[in-house]
């Protein structure tokens, strides 16, 4: 921050010097010299003319004319150097108001149209980076607000510009990107960290998770290769099983998804609270597998999702608009699997979505095992615009459980 203001002062000083310098080096003396030289040249030319006229007998009083010409030359000499110097001193006093005017104009225009507030916030965020990082890593699970997450991202980006070889910083930025569902940032940061510390299992696991959220097939293949590599290690992180099952299920490879989920069950044991959730995921995959084997054996009925939506006290319901409810996979993918619009009524309100609300025919709502629900009050009727819309989302739940959403955030 200090460097910024020092830089502005230096630029202003250079500008003032370029404007004021001519005032301390006035041109009056040079102009007087030029006029004197011009008069001498004129005097010399006029003498030559008089000589020619005298020889031609045109003039009779040549000496008198020469005397008058000399007198005119003397009369046109500048009054005195003292007067010239006094005039220059008066001009020099203009330097002070010019400097004041330039400083007032420069900083005044910057105050009106510049980004001094953003610059100050940027400096503040950078100074708060250690505190925000400590809060993020707090084992008590203190949740950062959306603004704190944005500040932490900005601070990390700034710090990494100065220390680009800080692998830990890149990992932290990548994980923040994952938490914010910013896939591009997550992949870029974690790829940088992986290049700095190759074959680090923890970094590879985070990177593979980010790559699985990408729609690019090359990224998906890379994630699969990394997870297969991690699966061959002596100590396998339980998240590897989960990510491999997730990839297999999304690819429609239900046999492999069941294999990995059962492998994860064997690792955690029946006493773990996650065991029952994994069992439901296995049952869902098994139903899809049975349907693939014999499509006519049963009519695939969708499981309805009951959603109760409430508003926080600060939300003002607009006079016009709609309520948009969307269901996503539990990983928080931005692309909804099912969605529906409802008129704005009195809150809280309860709605039900099922397979008829699926966005894509080939991917039904009932094909998911775990979901999350988002709700938004859309004010302009355009789904693609979200400015100033209020929204909220549920915690991840199992398909078939009731969802509860509180609309309490504003874009």
UniProtKB/TrEMBL annotation:
GO biological process entries: cytochrome complex assembly
Pfam family of the protein (one): Ig_CycH
Highest taxon above the source species: Bacteria
Transmembrane intervals: 6-24, 93-113
UniProt KW keywords: Cytochrome c-type biogenesis, Membrane, Repeat, TPR repeat, Transmembrane, Transmembrane helix
InterPro entries: C-type_cytochrome_biogenesis, Cyt_c_biogenesis_CcmI, Ig_CycH, TPR-like_helical_dom_sf, TPR_CcmH_CycH, TPR_rpt
SUPFAM superfamilies: TPR-like (SSF48452)
Domain Cytochrome c-type biogenesis protein H Ig-like: 305-407
UniProt name for this protein: C-type cytochrome biogenesis protein CcmI
Lineage of origin: Bacteria, Pseudomonadati, Pseudomonadota, Gammaproteobacteria, Vibrionales
């Amino acid at each position: 921050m200090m460097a910024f203001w020092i830089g502005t002062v230096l630029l202003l000083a250079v500008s003032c010097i370029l404007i004021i310098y001519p005032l301390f080096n006035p041109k009056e003396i040079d102009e007087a010299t030029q006029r004197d030289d011009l008069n001498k040249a004129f005097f010399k030319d006029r003498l030559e003319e008089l000589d020619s006229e005298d020889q031609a007998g045109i003039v009779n009083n040549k000496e008198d004319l020469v005397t008058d010409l000399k007198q005119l030359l003397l009369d046109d000499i500048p009054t005195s150097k003292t007067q010239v110097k006094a005039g220059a001193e008066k001009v020099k006093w203009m330097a002070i108001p010019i400097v004041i005017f330039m400083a007032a104009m420069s900083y005044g225009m910057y105050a009106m149209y510049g980004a001094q507030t953003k610059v100050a916030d940027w400096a503040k965020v950078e100074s708060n980076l250690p505190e925000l990082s400590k809060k993020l890593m707090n084992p008590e699970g203190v949740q950062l607000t959306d603004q704190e997450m944005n500040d932490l991202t900005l601070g990390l980006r700034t710090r990494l510009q100065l220390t680009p070889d800080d692998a830990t910083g890149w990992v932290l930025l990548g994980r923040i990107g994952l938490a914010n569902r910013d896939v591009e940032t997550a992949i870029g940061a974690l790829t940088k960290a992986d290049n700095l510390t190759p074959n680090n299992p923890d970094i590879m696991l985070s990177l593979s998770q980010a790559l699985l959220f990408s729609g690019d097939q090359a990224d998906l293949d890379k994630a699969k290769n990394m997870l297969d590599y991690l699966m061959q290690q002596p100590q396998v992180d339980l998240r590897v099983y989960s990510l491999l099952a997730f990839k297999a299920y999304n690819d429609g490879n239900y046999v492999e998804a069941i294999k990995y989920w059962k492998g994860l069950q064997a690792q955690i044991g029946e006493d773990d609270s996650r065991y029952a959730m994994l069992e439901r995921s296995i049952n869902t995959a098994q139903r899809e597998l049975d349907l693939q084997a014999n499509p006519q054996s049963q009519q695939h009925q969708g499981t309805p999702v009951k959603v109760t939506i409430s508003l926080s006290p600060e939300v003002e319901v607009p006079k016009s608009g709609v309520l948009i409810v969307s269901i996503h996979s539990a990983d928080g993918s931005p692309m909804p699997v099912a969605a529906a619009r409802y008129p704005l009524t009195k809150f809280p309100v309860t709605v039900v979505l099922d397979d008829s609300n699926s966005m894509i025919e080939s991917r039904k709502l009932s094909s998911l095992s775990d979901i999350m629900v988002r709700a938004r009050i859309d004010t302009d009727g355009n789904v693609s615009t979200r400015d100033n819309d209020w929204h909220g989302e549920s915690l991840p739940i199992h398909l078939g459980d009731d969802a509860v959403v509180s609309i309490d955030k504003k874009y």
